[in-house]
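so my prof wants the structure for this chain in the tokens format not the other one, which i didnt know existed until like an hour ago. anyway here's the sequence
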Amino acid sequence: MYNQAYQMLADNKEFCLQETLAFINSQILAQAEEFAEFPNTATSIDFCKRDLTIVLNAYLEGLELETDERITFVGSRYWKGNKSSLVGNKQKEIVAHKFLRNLICDYVFKNEQYVSQQGVAQQKLFETQAEEHARTKVFHDCEILIHSIVEGPKKEYLHNHLEKRFTAKWWEPKQVDRGDLETILECAYQAPSKQGYHEFKVVVLTDSPEGREFKEYLYWENTACLNKVRAAPGPGLRRYNGQVLAPTVMLWMGKTYPPGNNPFGESEWLRTNNDCIISATMAMCQAEELGIRTGFCGTLGGREIAQRLNMPGYTAVISVGFGYADTDSLQVRKVYKDGVEMGFDLSNTDSAIRRYENRKNRPPKYSMINYL
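here's what i got, hopefully its the right format
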């Protein structure tokens, strides 16, 4: 641990933040080429302040724990899926981060007085300099950050995988490795449960003859919709759910409770239903991190599924398909059976494609998320 360097940066954190903001402002006023596209608004400055604070905290954690894990994660946040989240020229971020790096290494760590460009926070000087290799550490972490900004994440985290996720419906025949499958199931098993009841079971449909037969039943009979009504009788082209034809399909079977509330005013069925959704989501997240595609399906005849599985007292709440699938730019594909057109299903539309109606419902991030 770089104890002296950590203390020096911690005590000068606000000073470094304000000096970097002042530097950015000076570059904007000077009409520096790198900052020509910077949207100089209160919102943009607030985002700068937030991002610089996150980077400073990452430098502090790196000095304290002698790790670059935090700065690697911070670098990953500059990307959404396969696209940079930055607006315009990336050079403005690079120039600002290099200024901050040099301010820390050449002034804070060396106990050199910097000619301040702001009047908000003062530099605190110490009697001794930082440890010998503290400057090298911050230079190293800054290089990781800049590389991530320019080239993409050095390491992908869950948010990177979720940003690239799509609902897989058309699958490659390749089976999920048993070791990966056990890892996914461990996450489903370790998922939190309200009051620790865990009143559900997970049924795993594999590529066995019995598993394939059950998946065919789910696809053609149980989950298919006619005029948006599941399992509706009558002629017509149906909407199918290819999630349930994945190489591996997991069914979350929740313990069935009668309608109404318990003596504490809570719905036992809602509690069990929520537990199933949480467990299934944990499994999905782990699968996506492993490079395994997933597809949720909630259009289930839950009681019929339980009856077919000989599981009285349970109801199928949610299913998730797991496997491998390539993306495309289509919105729908036709479904055929024995050469006859039966209906359609949505395609494996790449997550970067937002023009289709089912991709337009997610509101802007900060209209959904509110801080108090």
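also thought this was worth mentioning. The CA atoms of residues 97 and 246 lie 45 Å apart.
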